[in-house]
Design goal:
Strand order of the largest sheet: 1-2-3
Structural class: mainly alpha
Order of helices and strands: HHHHHHHHEEEH
Shape: elongated
Number of helices: 9
Radius of gyration: 34 Å
Strand content: under 5%
Number of domains: 3
Number of strands: 3
Helix content: 40-55%
Largest sheet: 3 strands, antiparallel
Distance between the termini: 88 Å
């Protein structure tokens, strides 16, 4: 049946003997579909299609026309081959970086915790005068902010260095946050 379909395709003057086309024609007359031909059990069909296409000068695979990209437009005016190659490499790296950023954004939105290690300039130790006068309302607000019940309510965990993190590992407050409040409160 596949051989007969290939003959009919050749008689029509077509040189397209791709699996997609042959499978579509075959399925239309009750034969194996393109998916069945692509499967492991379709190896004989694939071999038959390939040999027939070679024998009549046809193509066993569809050739898609290459689309002009922005890269082609940029490189169009560059005549020096070395410069053209270097610019091409830089633009390819830029496209790769864009793809990686897109993937990272997708991961960060799904499940991953993205932590970029951006080190801030360390300020010299600031000495807070011990004679800070807090109102009762200010004192209560600070005590409630670092209370274990508050941290648990928000799903946060306190570390011994004073850092506060979410249960997913994201830093809510940097190291020293809890210990600074405790020092201000005199705890």
């Amino acid at each position: 049946m596949i051989y007969r379909l290939c003959e009919e395709q050749h008689d029509r003057g077509s040189s397209d003997f791709s699996i997609a086309t042959t499978g579509r024609l075959s399925a239309a007359v009750g034969g194996p579909s393109a998916a069945a031909i692509r499967n492991k059990t379709g190896d004989d069909y694939k071999a038959l299609i390939k040999i027939y296409a070679e024998a009549v000068g046809g193509k066993a695979k569809k050739v898609t026309a290459r689309k002009d990209s922005i890269l082609d437009e940029i490189l169009e005016g560059v005549s020096d081959p070395v410069l053209r190659t270097r610019i091409g490499i830089l633009l390819a790296e830029l496209e790769s970086a864009r793809g990686q950023v897109t993937a990272l954004r997708h991961l960060a939105g799904e499940t991953a915790v993205l932590h970029l290690d951006v080190r801030e300039a360390v300020q010299p130790d600031v000495v807070v005068p011990s004679s800070i006068e807090l109102s009762k309302q200010e004192r209560n607000a600070l005590e409630r902010a670092i209370a274990p019940a508050t941290l648990e309510h928000w799903g946060w965990m306190a570390e011994t260095n004073g850092r506060v993190k979410t249960d997913a590992g994201q830093v809510v407050y940097p190291a020293g946050y809890l210990t600074a409040i405790q020092k201000v409160l005199g705890q």
